[in-house]
């Protein structure tokens, strides 16, 4: 039976690839995003599903689009909170408003979408949430303070929601490393991301497969195998981990003088 899957940030990158793989499995992807032209183009490529224009930071738009989707499709089986963005830069490179804007999209956008869906799922008798977080939400990273903070928040929300509503509502969070998306192609003009890591970017197809596995086989948290060692080192030997991270980002520290 085809599942109805609501995907925020569905017009490009990871969201688009998730929609493509869902289509291949016979599911019905419903794409959400702010750019109508991009959403329409992706939906026409897929030849399946639907799209809805929505800014996840605006509560009124979120509630309206969820109501419209439920009215049109009767139910939603899965919500994938994928909408998000980030920028590289030192902690002082961003204003408080920029920190706030990133938090509103990456964290509060997912919260608003989930809260809008919860009453429907409780009445329906179940549902699934897959939140696309980041490895940066498990370990602070130089030049990503604002982004990492938003992903830490998303992971904390996901874990709390899981404990509160399982097994009726299944909540999973995916924590990929750097992915081949516009985030890493165009948001690092100062080359603040180490070249050694840039060569190890994950393909969106790999990340999408992990997301679909979370739907099929729900788990609280999924970390790509290539990065599990780093998280284990951080947990078991935090001093060593911080030393390694400091050395990895030495290029940035040598070429950027912080002014206080």
TrEMBL record:
Belongs to the short-chain dehydrogenases/reductases (SDR) family. This is Ketoreductase domain-containing protein. The lineage of its organism: Bacteria, Bacillati, Bacillota, Bacilli, Bacillales. PANTHER family: DEHYDROGENASE/REDUCTASE SDR FAMILY MEMBER 7B (PTHR44196), DEHYDROGENASE_REDUCTASE SDR FAMILY MEMBER 7B (PTHR44196:SF1). Keywords: Oxidoreductase. It comes from Melghirimyces thermohalophilus. GO terms for cellular component: membrane. One of its GO terms (molecular function) is oxidoreductase activity. SUPFAM superfamilies: NAD(P)-binding Rossmann-fold domains (SSF51735). Coiled coil: none annotated. InterPro entries: KR_dom (IPR057326), NAD(P)-bd_dom_sf (IPR036291), Sc_DH/Rdtase_CS (IPR020904), SDR_fam (IPR002347). Residues 3-182 form the Ketoreductase domain. Pfam families: adh_short.
């Amino acid at each position: 039976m085809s599942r109805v899957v609501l995907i925020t940030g569905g017009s490009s990158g990871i969201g688009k690839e998730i929609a493509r793989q869902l289509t291949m499995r016979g599911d019905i992807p419903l794409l959400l995003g702010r750019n109508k032209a991009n959403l329409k183009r992706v939906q026409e490529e897929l030849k399946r599903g639907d799209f809805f224009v929505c800014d996840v930071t605006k509560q009124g738009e979120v509630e309206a689009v969820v109501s419209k989707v439920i009215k049109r499709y009767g139910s939603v089986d899965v919500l994938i909170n994928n909408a998000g963005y980030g920028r590289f830069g030192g902690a002082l490179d961003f204003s408080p408003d920029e920190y706030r804007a990133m938090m509103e999209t990456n964290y509060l956008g997912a919260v608003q979408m989930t809260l809008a869906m919860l009453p429907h799922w409780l009445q329906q008798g179940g549902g699934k949430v897959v939140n696309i977080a980041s490895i940066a939400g498990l370990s602070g990273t130089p030049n990503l303070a604002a982004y990492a903070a938003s992903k830490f928040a998303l992971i904390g929300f996901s874990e709390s929601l899981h404990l509160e509503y399982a097994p009726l509502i299944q909540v999973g969070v995916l924590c990929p490393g750097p992915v081949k998306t516009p985030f890493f192609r165009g948001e690092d003009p100062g080359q603040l991301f180490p070249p050694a890591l840039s060569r190890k970017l994950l393909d969106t197809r790999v990340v999408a497969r992990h997301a679909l596995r979370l739907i099929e086989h729900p788990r609280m948290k999924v970390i790509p195998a290539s990065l599990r060692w780093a998280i284990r080192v951080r947990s078991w030997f935090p001093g060593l981990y911080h030393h390694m991270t400091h050395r990895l980002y030495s290029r940035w520290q040598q070429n950027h003088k912080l002014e206080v």
